[in-house]
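Hi there,

I know you've been waiting on this one. I reran it after we fixed the sequence typo, so this is the corrected version. Both the input and the resulting structure follow.
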Amino acid sequence: MKNKAIGIIGGMGPEASEEFYRLLTYHAQKKYAAEKNEDFPEIYLASIPVPDFINNEKKKLTALNMLIHRVKEMNKLPIGFFCMACNTGHLLLGDLQKVTDKPFVSLLVELPKYLKGKKIKKVGILATPTTIRSKMYEKTLKQYGIELITPNSEDTEKLGKIILDIVAGRNKEKNLITVKQIAHKLLKQDAEGIIEGCTEIPLIFPKQHIIPMYNTLEILALAVLKKYYEVQ
């Protein structure tokens, strides 16, 4: 029996959702030996142009209402489970889960499990100001015995502006220098690696780098494919 489809809540931002789809395809090929069209997952990707609640928390309610409407509409599709290709968007996951009986594969669960598997005890994060201020990862990582090191307030604000630039396709080289500088500051505080805790960060950061980087887009893609192919 064919597995039910994957529903992706995306568009935050659009290029990150495109990269997430690419990672799903790539790992379906490499990890699950997908070769023919019928070997790949059926996927419904909703790229939703919500207002920027990621950097402006006052817009969160409007964004939430748009996402709730879309999840309700996607409930009519043959979807087995959802995921959200946005870290900060996970702050709204509890409200979205209330309008569907289909589960969400969540980074709040999958990221700590992944890092625990790597035996990480102390890790830094690059993320939006909203994600950092919410302490959403700090709380869930603590449950797994992992200490989270966050950027100082000045660097957090810099990251917010850089993420907006990435969404707009601006200043890649200049912003990469700043992101690396912030990452090195976290490493100096004994971080064993850095969480790319915003789905835009992997779009400018080199895939191979001397700094151990934990790409949340890739971690989510692997968890989604595991549920699709392995969990019945």
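Quick highlight: Strands lie at 5-10, 43-47, 79-84, 104-105, 122-126, 147-149, 194-196, 213-215.

Best,
R. S.
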